[in-house]
Specification:
Structural class: alpha+beta
Strand content: 5-15%
CATH class: Alpha Beta
Organism: Streptomyces griseicoloratus
Number of strands: 6
Strand order of the largest sheet: 4-3-2-5
CATH architecture: Roll
Shape: globular
Order of helices and strands: EHHHHHEEEEEHH
Distance between the termini: 18 Å
Protein name: Transglutaminase
Radius of gyration: 15 Å
Helix content: 25-40%
Length: 190
């Protein structure tokens, strides 16, 4: 599948905003700590991915009722669904000048992940969090995502790479009273 930037300006995939707030002290501190352990940007990207995947539980898996959407809040509260975890990973990567996009898949509901740009190409990564039956890993040599869409069942990969969260995603996150409410309002399309 060919991935398509929704804006041709690569600097948009390095920008900070209300959601991907990589200028926030919590994000900067976390990024700096991880960067000390990495020899290069590839190693840093893998460490940041594993940090988000493994140390921030997916709130549905853990039963946490809190809804987070801002990257710094995800890092502080240590919880989030796929979208929120993607926002946190994007912020950590952008904090170290690694172009990062938000991208989506559609199953019964829309699922969020990121794409990182290395060597002139985008590589999708899924920091959702592993559990039995889910084994997502950081890879620049072929995707190892949490889920693979069944196109015969109408599931799909969305090829568009967004510099900011899709409005349908951000809207439900901001409007949710708690995770059970969020689960009832997750978008089924973009």
């Amino acid at each position: 599948m060919e991935l398509i930037q929704n804006t041709p300006d690569l600097s948009a995939y390095l920008a900070a905003d209300e959601v991907i707030d990589h200028d926030h002290p919590r994000v900067r501190e976390t990024a700096a700590r991880l960067a000390k352990e990495a020899d290069d940007s590839y190693a840093y990207a893998r460490l940041a991915f594993e940090f988000v995947r493994d140390t921030i539980p997916h709130s549905q898996d853990s039963g946490d009722p809190r809804v987070t959407w801002r990257a710094s809040d995800v890092l502080e509260q240590r919880t989030g669904i796929c979208y929120a975890k993607a926002h946190a990973l994007a912020a950590l990567l952008r904090a170290e000048d690694i172009p990062t996009a938000l991208c989506y898949q559609r199953f019964d509901v829309v699922h969020g992940l990121v794409a990182v740009r290395f060597n002139g190409a985008w590589h999708r990564q899924d920091p959702r969090g592993n559990k039995p039956g889910v084994d997502a890993r950081f890879s620049l040599d072929g995707e190892v995502l949490a889920f693979t869409p069944d196109t015969e069942a109408g599931e799909e990969d969305h090829p568009v790479l967004y510099a900011e969260p899709h409005p349908a995603v951000l809207g439900v996150l901001k409007a949710a009273r708690d995770r059970p409410h969020l689960w009832e309002t997750l978008p089924t399309a973009l």
